[in-house]
Amino acid sequence: MSPLPQGSTIGILGGGQLGRMLSLAASKLGMKTHIYCPDANSPAFEVTPHKTVAAYDDEAALAAFADAVDVITYEFENVPAATAEFLAARKPLRPGANALAISQDRLAEKSFLASKNIPVAPHRAVESLADLEAAIDALGLPAVLKTTRLGYDGKGQRVLRDRADAAAAFAALEPKPLVLEAFIPFDKEISVVVARNTTGEVRAFDAAENVHRDHILFTSTVPADIAPGLEKHAAMLAKVIVVALDYVGVLGVEFFVVPSGERQALVVNEIAPRVHNSGHWTEAVCLTDQFEQHIRAVLGWPLGDPARMADVVMENLVGDEVLTVPTGIDGNTQPHLYGKTEIRAGRKMGHINKITRRS
Amino acid sequence: MSPLPQGSTIGILGGGQLGRMLSLAASKLGMKTHIYCPDANSPAFEVTPHKTVAAYDDEAALAAFADAVDVITYEFENVPAATAEFLAARKPLRPGANALAISQDRLAEKSFLASKNIPVAPHRAVESLADLEAAIDALGLPAVLKTTRLGYDGKGQRVLRDRADAAAAFAALEPKPLVLEAFIPFDKEISVVVARNTTGEVRAFDAAENVHRDHILFTSTVPADIAPGLEKHAAMLAKVIVVALDYVGVLGVEFFVVPSGERQALVVNEIAPRVHNSGHWTEAVCLTDQFEQHIRAVLGWPLGDPARMADVVMENLVGDEVLTVPTGIDGNTQPHLYGKTEIRAGRKMGHINKITRRS
């Protein structure tokens, strides 16, 4: 398919900050965007005149949306499978339904990655309390019990330290089935945002070193403080994943960096078929940021240059931390606020990119 | 006045590419924008749900617009004085009506600059053919006869090389009065984009060296190939101008670089009270670009960091040159397309920023 020309319309499922930033990037390439989201108060609705406020299973609304756009993408991995199939039958859906199906199910994701010889944590499917007991026998404790679907930002998971906690944790987590993952005593967490386009071109941004706070990403620091060989290996694994998925768009890959004798090794924690919070730093220091890269891929364009022009720390502004902008930040810092009307504890309200060294 | 918080609404007069890029920059700071433009087909209407399609002298529409926004700015210097006054009486207008009045009249602008000891070309007001004859006597030929109002991209001016051309040129140029400017045999043209905020903070971007083609800006190259002392002097003159105007926002200052004995000197060609085409390079290589800088100033925010992270050439895509994107540009290049629906000869359709050296 030839590249979509300027003036084309990109349909975006999801109206949060990622959808908003995708829309802004699309506008810079001369595109129109149409945001589809059930929440009438979505921040992405403020950056385009074209919107649909409807449920993700409203087939009349989905059909009209598909008619109004040239290509469809999304900002979140929990797009219902039926919605993805319905839309993909009408207009190109990028990334495809396959990537969604795999990444919205932890078990399917881990099986897929393992089948491509990508290292993942030892794990067992848990459909019953008996399964959980057997999984604990196999993996030992501590271990992490997780829902296979709909988890994010630490929701949908419990750390098990004692066998006596198993029954309560099993009862509390919904929806079933669950998965028990061996606890990985990692040194640090890193992530790589990688892109693949319709012609098979693949490019990765530099790895970011991530620190979480209250299960929410707090900072991403670039470059990551890891051996150069390990960073190259992370990029290679990320590229293997997008090739194996026949993927089109940007994908986030989270890794644990684990001790391995004298050195360190990588274990993939999870993948996200979308632009990723740990890639927001690209906006400040790359000629092509992750949002433009995703839009380029979705449009069938050549990928842009992901090279980095400076060292940077991205910090999320959660809850009322957003009030530190503009007066509490210094001149070496680029803010991005999401225009959310209500400040709530634990809500991602914006982020800042702080330049730590100019190269 | 305290800085406007995220979620505030910025009203923008003018719906062209500059208004569109201002709106995108405002969205990145969490703001809403409302675009006012008489042309229903304005490209800026594609990046916000809030618009007014009405004439600039429609007082009912202007009043409703002022009611709907928190602060007002504009993308072009030819906002009618009555419109500016009407709006400024209702909401803060930044930059102010004073800057508009001066910059939309070549004679007023030159008188103002000269009064601040800023070097400008020798010139004479021309209200009649007799004035023109006297002006030619005083300034010599060649000289450039210009309208005092509404000129842009080479429109509204004629180069006089022969006294016999005077009458025809005088008759052809409208509206009167006109101004005759001595022809400046310049070595090159440069420009400086400078910003001042509500607290009086002033910051300038690096100077760009500009090349025109068919009277339209073709390329801006940064750094400009001039002596460091001359660049510092240009920044200083630009800062003097915004201070003298008690200006709030971004202002473009165009200079001629002229021979001066063994060295070079500067003559101000014109000023523009808005973001400037020769500042589009800032988008690719500065932590704060000219659009965000303007929005910060208009919001009463501290200014951002204008430091440059790489060398760059901005090239305008005029007419069907826009069709070279995406396949005809290389990976070291950041495109920005304006989403204009109709390609016409001489129409600015987009620009590209090409990185020439990473520092």
What are the main properties of this structure?
homodimer; 359 residues; alpha+beta; Rossmann fold; Dna Ligase, domain 1; D-amino Acid Aminotransferase, Chain A, domain 1; nine-stranded antiparallel sheet; four-stranded parallel sheet; 27% helix; 30% strand; globular; ATP_grasp_subdomain_1 (chains A, B)
Summarize the structure.
The structure is a homodimer of 359-residue chains. In chain A, helix 1 packs across helix 10 (290-299). Chain A contains ten helices and 17 strands.
Write up what this structure looks like.
By secondary structure, chain A is of the alpha+beta class. Chain A has 3 domains: 9-93, Rossmann fold (3-Layer(aba) Sandwich), CATH 3.40.50.20; 122-182, ATP-grasp fold, A domain (Dna Ligase, domain 1, 2-Layer Sandwich), CATH 3.30.1490.20; 188-358, ATP-grasp fold, B domain (D-amino Acid Aminotransferase, Chain A, domain 1), CATH 3.30.470.20. Chain A is 27% helix and 30% strand. Chain A has helices at residues 17-28, 59-68, 81-88, 97-103, 106-115, 129-139, 166-172, 228-244, 282-285, 290-299, and strands at residues 9-13, 32-36, 50-52, 71-74, 123-126, 143-147, 157-160, 178-182, 188-196, 202-204, 208-213, 216-222, 249-260, 263-272, 310-318, 333-337, 348-358. In chain A, strands 9, 10, 11, 12, 13, 14, 15, 16 and 17 form a 9-stranded antiparallel sheet that branches. In chain A, strands 3-2-1-4 form a 4-stranded parallel sheet, sandwiched between helices. In chain A, strands 5-8-6-7 form a 4-stranded antiparallel sheet, with helices on both faces. In chain A, strand 11 and strand 12 form a beta hairpin. Chain A is globular, with a radius of gyration of 20 Å. The two termini of chain A are 39 Å apart. The model of chain A has no long low-confidence stretch (mean pLDDT 95). Chains A and B meet through helix 1, strand 16 and strand 17 of A and helix 1, strand 16 and strand 17 of B.
